[in-house]
Amino acid sequence: MALVIAGCAGGVTMPANGVTDTTATVKGLIFDPADGTVSYWFEYGATKSYGSETTHRSLVINDRDNHPVSEDLSGLGPGTTYHCRVCAKEPVTVCGADRKFTTSGGASQLSITAEPALYPDFDPAVSDWTPSIRARSAYRLFP
Q1: Domain extents in the chain
Q2: pLDDT band at residue 34 using 50, 70 and 90 as cut-offs
Q3: Looking at domain 10-102, what is its CATH homologous superfamily?
Q4: How far apart are the first and last CA of the chain?
């Protein structure tokens, strides 16, 4: 639901799509019952305080219809829930309702099963290690 002020532009926040571990496309509808040039942008962040916003863009509306808008976000954290909303200004700022999306991914643990056992013991802090593999050894990696 969006707060609509008579004669003012407004926005309706739509569900985000194309969500990956670090990117998403936020979407909305912009309208202006008085027709005119509307400034719009998206606010987003890990809380309802948002904290980030996209570039402010302009849209000329002369038909009083809803106009779909979207913005690609990047640099998001994996496995994180984000809040977003679309905002429009003409002549005052009116924002659409809050929506949430969650990026994929996140912390994953690598586990190694080996017969015979690996030596030295597997340490997640070790970033580079070359094992000496014997012909009768079996190694399986599980993400």
Answers
A1: 10-102
A2: confident
A3: Immunoglobulins (2.60.40.10)
A4: 41
